[in-house]
Amino acid sequence: AIGRNIDGYLTKPVNPAQIVSLCKSLFNARSLRSNHLTSRYVRQYAENKARILGPVQPADWEQVHQRLCQWDLDLGVTGNEGLRETHAGQREEAESIFLQYLESRWYGWMGRERLKPNFTWDLVAKRLRPKTREDKLPVLLVLSGLRTDHWLAMQPLLEGLFEVKLEHHWSPLPGIPEVARLCLFGGTSQKVLSAERPEWKWPAPQKLSEPSVLAGLLARSTGLTESEIDVRVASTIAQSRDLAKHSDGLGTARVTAVVLEFAWMLQESCSESDAENTAQQTDAIRYRTAARMLLAQAGIYHLLRRLQSQGREVILTADVGSTAVTEAIEVFCSEDQPHGFRVQFGKDISCDERHAFFMENPASSGLDGSRGPLALAKGERFFTQPNKYQYYGTSHLGRLVSGGLSMAEVLVPLCTLT
Question: What is the DSSP string of 65-124?
Fold first, then answer.
């Protein structure tokens, strides 16, 4: 009951004086909490505003993003309606300024600019490789599509097992497996990897769910042989549960990597839940609730508990975040080019320029240029073709996807569990 955030309880036998006393303390406590929450929010609101409107560095955006996500959780439970509206306004403003910041600096970061953020492709060199030299047998757990607010909802349930350190790193654009996961495991940009091996040049997305392909990329970035690397992949809740159940030998290789298609599992979990219980919830709250549930449903808690009992340090992160889309935008482009909900490739892309970020020169963005220019949907929008607008424009609202331009997709949680 305490775990469900009860306000108080009465023991039997109950007399009227106890009921009056408890009701009085509850009303007083709620008033105090509400006043404290409001004053704390106003203070951080001013701090966030000053930070994003002044000279800002990547680390500033990471802190602002984490604060906003924490307030998403806090106000979703106890905040009043006025405070929630104020927070929604600040989040929208921060998102808009972040997108302008990213667009103006992306090409510089992919070039010779020195003040770059930590990208996901830096993870192996900075975190995994030093530990392999010390024979510490690191474990990399990749929850694909994991967002910061999802992690903050899950973290309290794991703090009894681990000391948790939360940081962030930046996913490359676009956040699709052929780029995000390739770079994370390969340890460098997609442009470099594409030039090294033909099979790493825009591989099919399903290829990057094959353990042998991911092991080859890790061998390249760690300097180990593939026989020293253990990679496991699960795409559904049932597969993840089975992986956790048969994890006896997990964590004994020089480097162990486990990849779970977390966003797919969240979608699967929400689609199976009772519609009556979720009708009053926003998509964000629904997915955060599902994220907590998946710790048990998908065997993630069992897997982490086993690794903790072995004394393993776990680096938990994502290749890219995700966003629940709320608005369809029409895009006109060639039919023979690859299409995605958040990414469109081709020379003749046409859509509302306010809603998309155009990469006219992919080679200057750390990408292989053979697919030509591309457009990324901004915010919570997704692309749909005119002849399919009626179908996709309504049936896919609220779907959790990756590949576009938003804080939740680009700023990826990086958690060290010790």
Answer: HHHHHHHHHHHHHH--HHHHHHHHHHHHHHHHHHHHHHHHHHHHHHTT-SSPPPBGGGHI
